[in-house]
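User: Can you recover a sequence for this backbone? Please restate the input before giving your answer.

Assistant: Of course. Working from this structure:
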């Protein structure tokens, strides 16, 4: 969540030798060299590529002889378990990752508010509201679309969502105020210590009418609205509370417009600056509120603001900072189900987005595939793009299947893709993560015989409180950061940033944070993907769309 040179300058010896990432191309706008930044937008460059025909074959066929053997149910269970390792606050009796202990028990107290709970975003000890809200929204979307496929893991997935939504209910309890961050990122990143030991300032940051943050407030509203759908049947009273709060928070976000990275620049940048503006979050939240409430006012809001808020912008990206592609896919379901013909433009945008991702159909300069078949965008923490984009591909394929439709990519040949092709592309990315790649390595900790052992994560890399009861201070943790030894605590289910360029290379090194750090928003969309493929593992049995 930052350029890690500033995180460890005073901590560590030089990082271990490794294959250096290919230098990023010039960007049309500044983005930080950070695992949590949106991918840099490179200008077109000449890159030697596989022919589209060979690449298509590579992506749609198994990468190794054993491809297709994965236990997606086990991977799903572990991907959910990861969130227990990211918990802040007082841990519940049923906590399964036992090396973790209570932390952040006084968060918010200095500001007179209870902000205990929630998730640490990655390998540090700060609670960043913007990516946490996106994480919660994507976890909920997976449950909404693929709930039946979660099978015995549905309840633990709902608990993971609730750990976030409970926190957001606290963070939005004061009208026209959203508490958006707990912890001083700069000071936190100058230490390498367990969350149980942290003694860095737990500074509280908020947005309000005088310091607007439409982006983070609207994303929080989206998370609450999506969560209300998840709990509609399981806990109707809680569901209604979430929806009521979501509507209240959205009203605040829309009335007091502005970017939170302008209001709170020193606190939230460069970790989670909003580079794409707040307009997409307003549309995104309205779409989720319409889905959750079915109120006409949100449909009218989308209709009235479609052009003004740029619904068709930046459709080749989807992540914590840019929601445009997600908006178009989410609203397209209404069109494909025959519920709203007015939003045909959103379906056209979704189709165009899919066409930028499909190998053999599009050669988009900002979406590339490695020789081993991994989708990548220039920048760090590439798996955030892999899981988020693959989730959208899978979700859209299901909407198309139910409507008996295909993706039309235009062009002289009238190229189109059936839903099965979309699913194959999404499954290929999931299989790559789980080990069907040139290194034969799973990028999920604890899954398969070979996986990352030196992940960039404070709690995982320092002996647990049970193993080392004495406090390990801010700088004392540097020895563990610099150690070449495997992490003593397995953060089961964590998916790291992974290969970040065309080499398919991965240095299992703590210091190379761009590739070795896990994040909540890598795992969140992966839950829905794994649920679906656990119930539908065999492509030969997919419907002939």
């Amino acid at each position: 969540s930052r350029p890690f040179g500033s995180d460890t300058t005073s901590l560590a010896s030089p990082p271990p030798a490794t294959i250096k990432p290919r230098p990023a191309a010039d960007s049309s706008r500044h983005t930080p060299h950070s695992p949590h930044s949106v991918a840099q937008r490179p200008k077109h460059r000449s890159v030697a590529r596989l022919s589209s025909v060979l690449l298509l074959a590579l992506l749609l066929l198994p990468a190794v002889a054993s491809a297709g053997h994965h236990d997606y149910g086990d991977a799903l269970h572990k991907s959910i378990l990861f969130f227990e390792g990211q918990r802040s606050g007082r841990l519940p009796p049923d906590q399964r990752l036992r090396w973790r202990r209570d932390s952040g028990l006084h968060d918010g107290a200095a500001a007179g508010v209870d902000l205990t709970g929630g998730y640490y975003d990655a390998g540090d000890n700060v609670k960043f509201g913007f990516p946490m809200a996106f994480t919660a929204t994507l976890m909920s979307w997976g449950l909404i679309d693929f709930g039946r496929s979660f099978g015995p893991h549905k309840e633990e997935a709902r608990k993971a969502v609730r750990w976030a939504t409970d926190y957001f209910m606290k963070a939005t309890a004061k009208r026209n105020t959203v508490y958006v961050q707990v912890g001083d990122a700069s000071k936190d990143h100058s230490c390498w210590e367990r969350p149980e030991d942290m003694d860095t300032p737990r500074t509280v940051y908020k947005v309000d009418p005088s310091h607007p943050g439409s982006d983070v407030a609207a994303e929080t509203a989206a998370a609450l609205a999506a969560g209300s759908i998840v709990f509609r049947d399981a806990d109707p009273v809680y569901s209604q509370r979430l929806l009521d709060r979501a509507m209240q928070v959205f009203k605040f976000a829309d009335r007091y417009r502005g970017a939170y990275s302008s209001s709170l620049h020193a606190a939230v940048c460069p970790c989670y600056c909003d580079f794409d503006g707040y307009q997409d979050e307003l549309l995104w939240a309205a779409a989720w509120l319409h889905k959750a409430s079915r109120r006409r006012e949100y449909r009218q809001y989308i209709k009235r603001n479609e052009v003004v808020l740029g619904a068709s912008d930046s459709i080749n990206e989807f992540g914590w900072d840019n929601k445009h592609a997600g908006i178009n896919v989410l609203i397209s379901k209404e069109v494909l189900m025959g519920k709203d013909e007015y939003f045909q433009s959103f379906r056209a945008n979704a189709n165009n987005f899919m066409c930028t991702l499909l190998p053999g159909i599009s050669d988009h300069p900002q979406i590339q595939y490695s020789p081993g078949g991994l989708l990548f965008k220039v920048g760090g923490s590439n798996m955030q793009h892999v899981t988020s984009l693959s989730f959208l591909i899978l979700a859209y394929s299901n909407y198309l299947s139910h409507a008996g439709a295909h993706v039309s990519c235009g062009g002289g040949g009238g190229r189109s893709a059936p839903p099965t092709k979309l699913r194959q592309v999404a499954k290929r990315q999931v299989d790559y993560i789980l080990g069907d790649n040139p290194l034969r390595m799973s990028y999920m900790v604890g899954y398969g015989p070979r996986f990352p052992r030196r992940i960039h994560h404070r709690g995982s890399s320092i002996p647990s409180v049970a193993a080392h009861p004495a406090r390990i201070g801010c700088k004392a943790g540097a020895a563990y950061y610099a150690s070449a030894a495997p992490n003593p605590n397995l953060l089961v289910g964590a998916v790291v940033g992974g290969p970040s360029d065309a080499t398919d290379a991965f240095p299992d090194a703590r210091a190379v944070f761009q590739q070795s750090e896990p994040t909540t928003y890598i795992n969140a969309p992966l839950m829905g993907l794994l649920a679906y493929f656990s119930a539908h593992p065999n492509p030969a049995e997919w419907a002939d769309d």
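That completes the design. The beta strands are 127-128, 178-182, 204-207, 368-369, 375-376, 407-410, 415-417.
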